[in-house]
Amino acid sequence: MKKDFKLILIILFLIFSSQRFAFSQSLNSDELIKNAKEYDGKLITYSGEAIGDLMLRGEFAWVNINDGQNALGIWISSALAKEIKFMGNYKFRGDSLEVIGIFHRACLEHGGDLDIHAQSLRKTGSGRIVKEKLNFDKVNLSFILLGALFFIWILTLFKHK
Amino acid sequence: MILKPRLEDLKIIGFYLGKIIIGLALTMVIPILIALCFGEINPALDFFISIEISALFGLLLVKICQTDKDLNWMQGMIVVSLSWVVAMILGAIPLYLSGHWKSFLDACFDAMSGFATTGLTLVGNLDHLSYTHNLWRHLIMFLGGQGIVVIALSFFVRGFSGAFKMYVGEARDEKIMPNVINTSRFIWMVSIVYLILGTLALGITGMFMGMQPVNAFFHGACVFMAAFDTGGFSPQSQNMLYYHSFAYEVITVILMVLGALNFKLHYHLWMGNRKELIKNIETRTLFVTIIATFSIVAVGLAQTGIYPAATILFRKGFYQLISGHTGTGFQTIYAGQFGTEWNQLALVGVILAMGLGGAVCSTTGAIKMLRIGIIFKAFKEDLKRIIMPEGAIVIEKFHHIREVFLEDKLVRSALIITLAYIILYGLGALVGMFYGYSFVGALFESTSAAANVGLSCGITNIAMPAALKVTYILQMWAGRLEFMSVFTILGFLFASLKGK
After folding, report:
1. Which of B64, B128, B130, B311 to mutate to test the interface with A (most CBs of A within 10 A)?
2. Rg (CA), chain B
3. Counting CB atoms within 10 angstroms of each CB, which of B34, B38, B287, B429 has the fewest?
4. 3-state helix, strand, coil in chain A (%, to 5)
5. How far is the alpha carbon of B67 from chain A, nearest alpha carbon, in Å?
6. Tens digits of per-residue pLDDT, B355-392?
7. Which long-range contacts (CB under 8 A, 24 or more apart) does B66-69 make?
8. Which of A31, A38, A39, A55 to mutate to test the interface with B (most CBs of B within 10 A)?
9. Which residues are A15's β-sheet partners?
10. Closest alpha carbon to B100 in A90, A69, A104, A2
């Protein structure tokens, strides 16, 4: 009896895990855009960096995730979106996220946009502040050019006299 | 006998070119102020260096070529066409220094695309670009949309009779006010009033959409500049798809249409003459061509069955069409979707819309509505001549601010420019096909570049051949200036080589 119970548990685990992973193919944005018809309505896995703004819309939110090729819009529940701390821009490296969700070639709910409706979200890497280091080559170049500009200005004054 | 240009010609051209360059250098102060506000040090340095280089170049030209003589037509045209090339090179310096453009050619491509209000882009990692550089990308659209020479005329030139020659050289031949300097100032006043209203509308909408207030208003200002100046750049890599908002789409459609209207028409609307909007040949032609081209797009999209509902088909099809017709280039679909999801009929509908363009004396490129209207009227007149008795006198008129009799010289001029545009679209498509792209794809991208639109079906990318990048740069330049200044500079070069 105990053995049978274990066996049932293992079978159930395999069924559920296979449903989650076997149908959610890991794809990049180029593949999704080029083969949108093929993946329309399917469960997919998409990974990348959260960029721009986290746009809360009631119980849901829009997060745009860039995988280095394109950025795709992810429609996600606000509760899941709370996990996201850093959004990528000039001063921040955004959180790295892995989304499992339904891909829509032309979403009926969102005006025909190509998007993903997230079912789960996993943070695979934390974002950070990008520290801006002063580029001394640029500083030197600007001083040299300033000197040249000043020199030209002096020359033109002499020429006038 | 062709006469070789004299040294004096070069001095006069150099002097006025120098003045325009100094004007351009001064506009770079705006991004520096933004850099200081956002605490972006290296971007501020990029613009500091660019101002220094521009000021050096401009100052040297003004001093070496010092003159008090006025421009003649040939010199005025050459100053204008050279101004756009020099603006491209100087405007590309800060972009290249940012490290987001792979080569200086790519930065020049984006600078020309910006100044010519096209919107095709080769930027890499746009989502991590600084506020400072992003503002510059959009600001050059705002400056280019009004016209680089218009800026100089408005703020940096205190009246000279050569002004009109430069103004015409920049593809604007309509005087709204009694003189071109006042006309230029009026164009700026209209643009700045709309800038404030548009930024407020988009900024507030952005906040309701969940954007941070600073971002909402920054994006609002950038998107306004790109929409009203029918440019098409966007602060994020997804273009309009970034916002996921119907309200944003509606506001940008309104701004795009406003940008595609003649500034003279704006003046009459501001003066309370609303009937002009209905009577004007340009708005009537625009209305007809929008319906005609949208019908083609709608039939094409219906055939594909990609959009699950009629409302969605309308929303997607109409947005891309208006964006193409007004020469803006905003997209609510990914570039690759044009090639993979839209069929050839829908693409031809958009190509036709892009090739036609908006009104004359607006910020759009392409053939333009006045010329299409005139050609249609001429066609109608010829038909009447065939139908009516031989002795009948056929007179055709059209309304453009006032009643105008259709004269042969008007028709000839409209047909020549139309033909020049068609040749330009075709030449770019030939180069595209030479590099292995399909006919429709190559024609789409070529028309987009030459008509200063900015919609892309995916051909424009960092990896495309350098010769194709140069082709599109030349198309954007020639298309924006409507050929006359470009022909003049070619003639000038020929005379320099073969003249006596």
Report:
1. B128
2. 22
3. B287
4. 35, 35, 30
5. 13
6. 999 988 888 888 999 999 999 999 999 998 888 887 88
7. B66/B11, B66/B15, B67/B8, B67/B11, B67/B12, B67/B15, B69/B8, B69/B12
8. A55
9. none
10. A90
pLDDT at B179 > cutoff 90: no
What pLDDT, in 10s, does the model give residues B442-458? 999 999 999 999 999 99
Per-residue pLDDT reduced to its tens digit, B87-99: 999 999 999 999 9
B234 CB-side CA count, 13 A: 21
Is 0.90 exceeded by the ipTM? no
Comparing B294 with A157, the larger pLDDT belongs to B294
- Helix (H) and strand (E) counts in chain B: 22, 2
Contact A52 B127 (CB under 8 A): yes
**A142 contacts in chain B (CB < 8 Å):** 45, 48-49, 52
> B109 is written with which tokens?
């491509």
Distance, in angstroms, between A50 CA and closest chain B CA?
10
Most confident of A99-108, A151-160, B184-193: A99-108
Q: What's the pLDDT at B161? A: 59
With an 8 Å Cβ cutoff, are B236 and A112 in contact? no
Query: Could B341 and A73 be called an inter-chain contact, meaning their C-beta atoms sit closer than 8 Å?
Result: no
Strand partners, B402: B400
Q: What confidence score (pLDDT) does residue B68 get? A: 79
pLDDT (tens digit per residue) in B41-70: 999 999 999 999 999 999 999 888 888 787
Contact assignment for B315 to A112 by CB distance below 8 Å = yes
Contacts of A62 in chain B (CB under 8 A): 210, 244
Average pLDDT, chain B: 89
Mean pLDDT on B186-215 = 91
- C-alpha distance from residue B462 to each of B225, B285, B406 (Å): 24, 37, 47
Residue A77's Cβ-count burial label (10 Å; 0-12, 13-18, 19+) is: middle
A160 is written with which tokens? 């006038």
Q: Is B209 on the interface with A (CB under 8 A)?
A: yes
B-chain residues near A51 (CB < 8 A): 127-128, 236
Q: Which residue of B has its CA nearest to A73?
A: B242
| Tokens linked to B46 | 């990029």
Q: In this complex, do A142 and B52 lie within 8 Å of one another by their Cβ atoms?
A: yes
- Rounded to the nearest 10 degrees, what angle do helices B180-208 and B246-259 cross at? 180
pLDDT score for B493: 85
Nearest to A33 among B128, B209, B336 (CB): B336
What does the block give as tokens for B96? 């290249």
Q: How far is CA B452 from CA A111, B4, B232, B327, B363, in A?
A: 27, 34, 10, 6, 10
Over the stretch B216-241, which tens digit does the pLDDT of each residue have?
A: 999 999 999 999 999 999 999 999 99
List of residues 6+ apart from B243 with CB closer than 8 A: A55, B206, B209
- Binned at pLDDT 50, 70 and 90, residue A161 comes out as very low
Question: How far is residue B145's CA from residue A132's CA, in Å, rounded to a whole number?
Answer: 33
B272 secondary structure, DSSP code:
T
Residue B293, amino acid: T
Question: What gap in Å lies between CA B79 and CA B20, rounded to an integer?
Answer: 9
Question: What is the spatial distance between Cα B499 and Cα B497, in angstroms, rounded to a whole number?
Answer: 6
Alpha carbon of residue B432 to chain centroid: 21
At B389 the pLDDT is: 85
Q: How far apart are CA B24 and CA B27, in angstroms?
A: 5
**Inter-chain contact A149–B56, Cβ cutoff 8 Å?**
yes
